[in-house]
Amino acid sequence: GALAEAAFAKACTACGDCVPACPRDIVLQPRGADGQPGLPIVDLTKAPCDLCGECIKVCPTDALSHERRQLGVAVVDLNACWSWQGQECRKCLDICPAPGAITGQQAGGVRVYENLCTGCGFCVHACPATPKALSTASPAWRFVPMIQIQSGPLA
After folding, report:
1. What torsion do the CA atoms of 12, 101, 135, 3 make, to the nearest 10 degrees?
2. Which residues contact 57 (CB under 8 A, 6 or more apart)?
């Protein structure tokens, strides 16, 4: 996990040590318009993040920490979710590594609890629906919590 976005941008030196440390190859370091290395991002479109912490181990600053373990929050599209459409599907529930982050509802469908969801992306990759019924706010997340992400219109 990372500091809040402004603090992360200040603390991160853009050294790039976190990029090769990621065993899933999802930490990228895009270059800015000036050609210089920018701040690292986590690209969950390539693969989910298992929160292994290898990036944290190599970070020479306090920009990353084991105390902050949220990349964002998954969002459910009720119109695309098979379960919300009355079909049997538990893929997201079965694969989610965060206990209680995704639950099934008695009326059908699933709910994401944003206080428990780590935003790892496992549910998104497991979703069999086309288009995916689960998504993130952005295809490439920074290391920071995505405060603007909501858990959707579920009550």
Report:
1. -10
2. 21
Tokens read off for 101: 């982050």
Whether this prediction's pTM lies above 0.85 is answered by no
Query: pLDDT tens digits for 121-150?
Result: 999 999 999 999 988 754 334 443 332 223
Q: Which contacts qualify for 51-60: CB closer than 8 Å, 24 or more apart?
A: 51/97, 51/118, 51/120, 52/23, 52/24, 54/21, 54/22, 54/23, 55/18, 55/21, 55/22, 55/27, 55/143, 56/1, 57/21, 58/17, 58/18, 58/21, 59/17, 59/18, 60/13, 60/15, 60/17
Residue 102 near residue 117, CB atoms below 8 Å? yes
Phi, psi of 58 (to 5 degrees): -95, -5
